Amino acid sequence: MAKLCVSLTEKSAAETLSAMRGLPACVDMVEVRLDYFRQNTRTVRAGLEEVCRNKDRPIIVTNRPCREGGRYRGSERSRLDSLRRAAALGADYVDVELDSVSALGEISPGTGKIVSYHNFECTPADLEEIHRHAVAVGADVAKIAVRAQRVVDTLPVLELLERRAAAVPTIALAMGEEGMPSRVLAAKFGAFLSYASLAAGRGSADGQVPYREMEETYRFSRIGPNTTLYGVVANPVAHSMSPTIHNAAFAEVGLDAVYLPFKVSRPAAFLDGYQRHELKGLSVTIPHKEAMVPLMDEVDELTARMGALNTVAIRDGRRYGSNTDVGAALSALEEAARRAGLLPLQRRTVLLEGAGGAARAIAYGLAGRVGRLIIANRTVSRAEKLAEEVGAEACGLDEVSSLRPDLLVNTTSVGMYPRVDETPAPSSVLRPGMVVFDAVYNPMETRLLREAREAGCTTASGFEWFIGQAAAQFEAWTGLSAPRERMAEVVKKRLSSG
Ligand code: NAP
Questions:
Q1: Is 466 in the pocket of ligand 1 (CB under 6 A)?
Q2: Residues 312 and 335 in one domain
Q3: Kind plus residue range of the DSSP H or E element containing 231
């Protein structure tokens, strides 16, 4: 089982020991980055001794020079001395760079040698060769850390682990945001360990995930060779809430599965590569909803008509595309209309504000189901184009105040965090008995929804939509009933934590 190792980049032994003692038991090891210590030879020597004497779990001592991405600026001789000394003081492992291993020479028995190779530019083609070299020079653990320029660069790294890690303890990871999945999947592919940071922004390498997130969100310690893969395909992907919601859902129902953020630039290459590794399902978002459609073996009728999907399910090697945005938005809207006594919708006028991706899903869902559909957008030509596709009317946002819709749906981003004081609808439009639905889910109650509630309207929130579309994805992938309450709980928690 892969160990979780927190890389500590503290300035002194006291801070290192204090951080180490604050770590929970799920953190198996700690890397002590001596190169982050205040650089005074005597302090570093004494500090190393203090850490080795008082450690509360296995440690790796690393003193990385600048040329290998570290902070150590002193002489090579005293750098290698510090590693020999760490071994003599009982460090469990020392990390020595591939090009320094012969200069290091023998170290005290009982201390393992991690022989490491770094490439901060790219993922070179000869990973196997580098690994062989590290083993040949006496690595107890061979370590390869490379830069992923694209998410598919994680694949040769993971496949190296798959081939070699059973025979030789191996650490292989891809740095950068594109490489992040390799840090979690290290556990599936048999790595010796994966590094995590103490907290966000405190890592020793680009792309390291805080240990709490590794364990609480990704359940690192439970990942094994049979864990199935899911994820969100997007660009950018860093702020996606989907890993939080779907991993919590998998945990709640006890599925051996993990859901990752994939920062993808070329969806076809991504799908082909990851499909070799038990990829079972994807959420798809900006900018790939359209580009994914022709990559499917099958899509449902609505997806084919819209030309956009948000869900991929992979069964027996076949890719099925669907769009859970539409069904979930309609459910939220119809439920609000039912509460307001506005069903059936065929007799109602709906004003849809916005003409982007969210508007498109709702316009396709509502087309042919409502008496009158009016699409209003800041850029009128976009409203006109969408209206023509679905057989609706179009106008500019300036005409909104003269309309008297039964249902108002906002899909513009107006009112979204941080511009929470803005609203897309003048209060004169809001009349008692209307339904007002806001696609924006951050904040959960937008200014539009608050004013609508105060005006006596029935409201539906983007939060309900967001949970609904995620729950439908979960059900499409697993065939199980989605744990909606748990999903809502974790999203609420995440939204309230800012
Ligand atoms: P999008 O494709 O970028 O479209 C943005 C829309 O907002 C466009 O119609 C744009 O008008 C309009 N807009 C942006 N700034 C504006 C401003 N200052 N004044 C007036 N109109 C403005 O984005 P999207 O994917 O449709 O998402 C829109 C919102 O819906 C976001 O808040 C998103 O979080 C939310 N959403 C929620 C869910 C959910 O599950 N609850 C799902 C999808 C989206 P122009 O065409 O003139 O630029």
A1: yes
A2: no
A3: strand 228-234
